[in-house]
Design brief:
alpha+beta, four-stranded mixed beta sheet
Amino acid sequence: MLALKWLLMSLGIVMFGSAAGVVGYDIYLAMQFQRLLSSGESGAARQIGTRRPMRWSLAARLFGLALGVTLLAVSLVIVPEGAGGIRISQISGVRPGTLYPGIHFVVPLVQGVAVYDLREHLFSTAAAPEAGSKAEVLNVQAREGLTMGLAVAVRYRLDPQRLNTIHTNLAQPVESEIVAPVVATAFRDLAPNYVVREVFSTSRDQFRQRAAQTITQRLAPDGIIVKEVLLRDVHLPAEYAKGLEGLLLKEQESDRMAIETTIQEKQVRLAELAAEAEKARQIKRSEADAATRVIGAKAESDAMQYTLPLKQKQIEQSRLEAEARKEATVQNAEAAAESKVIDSKAEAERRKLLTAADADGIRLTAAADAERMQQEATVLKQNPMLIQKIIAERLSDKLQIIMVPTDGQNFFASDVLRSTFAGTPNSIRPDENDSGTAAVARRQTQGARIK
């Protein structure tokens, strides 16, 4: 529809130009004809003919059409999405009724349309000056007289049913001329009722709600609907912030100690409950044990009626068993005595046999020794040199004995021994009457003595 409006405007301008062109062209031709007449060129003028009349009717029709198209284009008013408009008459002023988004017709050159944005707007303030920020700094004074900054955000929109009142009575623009002063005044009037700590922490939501209620009530009569008021930040004085931080730390410590105390109290209570439960369990257990003993005693009492005859039978059986064991013990003792007598006799017989066997062994050993000695005496008698050999062996374990034939013939060591004893001073020569073996043994024996 906006394109249609601009098309009509363009068509009107073209028609205005066409009307002006027709009139101008006719005027140009008339001026050219008049110039030819005044210059004496009547022949040329006669060739041209009479002067062409002005086409005023054509120009008037084009002008009327152009004016109608232009007025039609001007009478078309387009209200965009999210906006609303009101008719403003040059004669009677603001007309009642709101123009909603779309195309509307107005009286050309008499009425106009004022368009307002009906979408939500956001007015915000800053708690402290910020570089590059155009938001207004909102400072308020608390009950102590301390100045603190508030970062506030207000969501609002214009009431479409009251746009005529807004346009007639309110200064423009509404945000800077109406909303900003009302918001600042509401917070500044409300802040002295609170201390800084309440605004910052304990009563912050209450402070915001009361301010929102005040702002809503003040802006509602002017056709401004407040959707929400937000308290985004509170800027505290530097010294107060430090003190408040320390106080908050102490409060946190106090809260922590209170919580720990509560926990300890609950632990004590749990211990008491546990002790009571244990006491109750012990009582119940004792009662159960007593009941069990009573039931057991009753059961034993009932069982005694059947147990006593059985016990008597057991006693009689034990007596009989004792008598049987006594008789068995006597018989076992007699049997053991007889067994010991038999064992003693067997031991005496065994010793007698062992003594006889030892005597026989001694006699046999003596006979064997006598026979051996007799044999040794016979051997020594036949070979007297064995005595010297035995003596030489017992003198030292380093002696070496060589047995050689008695005559020394056909023995390669006879000459070696002779030469050895011949070259050795104080050597002992073998006796010619001695046999070879005896002589060697005697020399070795003497050599061992010399060493």
